[in-house]
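DEPOSITED CHAIN:
***
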Amino acid sequence: MGIDEHIRKGTKEERKVAVARLRFLSSDEEELVHEKSLETLSEIGVLVRSESVLSLLDDSGASVDKRSQIARVPEGMVSDALKKAPSEFRMCARDRANDIEVPTAGAPHLTTDGLTLYMKDLETGEKRNATRSDFAEFARLADALEAVDFFWPIVTISDVPSSSHNLHELWTAFQNCSLHVQGDCTDPLDARKMIELGALIVGGQEELRRRPIFSCATNPISPLSFDKGAVEAQVEFARAGVPILCHSMSMSGMSAPVTLAGTIVNLNAENLASIVISQCASPGAPHIYGSCSMPADLMTGAINLFAPEGMMISAAAGQMARRYRRPCMVANWGMGGKGPGIQASLSEAFAYTLGVFSGSDLISGIGGLDYAKGCSMEQMVLDSIVWDNFRAFLRDFTIDDKMAALDVMREVGHGNSFLSHAHTGKNFRKELHFWDKDNLALEATLSSEMLPKARRIAKKLLKEHEVPTLEREVVRRGELVLKEHDREKRSKSGSEGVHIRSRPNKKDIR
């Protein structure tokens, strides 16, 4: 998008300052994130609650303490895994016309929100659990919407056994959607059954390896932890050639250090650990670098999807993924509030959607409501319509050894919270932005007081504020430049013709 990198020059002793941009990290900052991630893996390690996966890592060169279930991964293992993991691959679909390639050279591939807890009834608007029939309709709607490139099971089915709902959702999706399906799995048995279902559709496990019509999200538990079922499922998928999404959900101030640098290091370390696990299980296994990392709402403990820092985290994650030549899913899309519609203020909406500039190959979130707890079909349509581009915010953040906060990570330990740590209390006001609720009310699209109050403020500013005038000669030259530019454009279009490419049909994009 032509947004430049801005780094304040100085000596090595001076702090490095990052400014929000498509390339959020400078080369030195990027290197620091990489180095601190390696230090995290080799010295702090990752908690792996699986004897079989710990043994796999032990055999591959990690230092494993089976009593604590901590695996410390040396730099050589990380480098080897990055070399083995494919830098590009195809996420196939039942209909070959809907196959998608990652990484993408153009706009990110869009999918729905994933695994919400409730839905809004299309007829009554009432909040309720979703049935398999409802889920089938969501899948068909996703298939029909041109904006949707692949389908992430958007809602949890309630009328099937809760222990196997992921499997039912994948199968229902296969039957009602011709797109690539991104499933969820936290159990190795479910993983084997999902592989079997996929193989059944494409004609065998070797054909599934060649044409993986589904992928699977098997998320780490921040900070730096991998649960038994999910990580063992990951091994099953890796061995079957099914792409894995490591969707780190590092929450600044809760499951990661409150500093942006600490959060970025944490999510990056988790992704590198996940890549190592997949490649130890099956060299060449397809793997997607992922992040849905955001600051925590320190008032409620919930994830703050509209935090302005979220875009910076997404941009950094996208940059690290590009460094490692990894396909990535590090941004979100969707305007849903408590109910269908667009209820966020302009600033909140911009903060949420600026992540589309992060370099993410895949983006999730359409149709979601209530901080990804609910969903609706109306919101899927609205989010598809509003799929557009946004500009960047600009803020400074310190990215250095101190703010990476590895000392804090050591003190807090695996699987614990940073909320009560003194480091969070000391830094959160400097690192996190807190919206002014009164100002947000002025921006709210559904506020009945927005226009009258905004009009009064505008009139006051126009009356009292004075803008220094430009010199007359500067104005004149500027006008000449504009006129000449217009002439050149007209001349070019007249001599070459104006070539306007119509919006392609979904089936023609591939």
